[in-house]
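Bit of a strange request maybe. I'm writing a small parser for structure token strings and I need a real example to test against, not something I typed by hand. Could someone generate the tokens for this chain?
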Amino acid sequence: MVILPITVVLTSILFSILTKKWFVMPLITFLILSLVMITIFNTTFFIWVALFTILSLVVSFLSLFTRKLIITHR
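Reply from user aminoacidic:
Good idea to test on real output. This should exercise your parser:
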């Protein structure tokens, strides 16, 4: 319960900075976790899929916003 959220946060920051798009990592997170839900877990795991996708979305927005603030204040 600790490793997956940390992984989602770190990869969201990395992908949002590299691609400069807010929707890439939340989409990847949703697709990968949905595939895991279908193959390994049952449909009750969809709650976690939704929560981690929202977490990825928030982190992506925050990292891009922080990046823009840093660039404009230089």
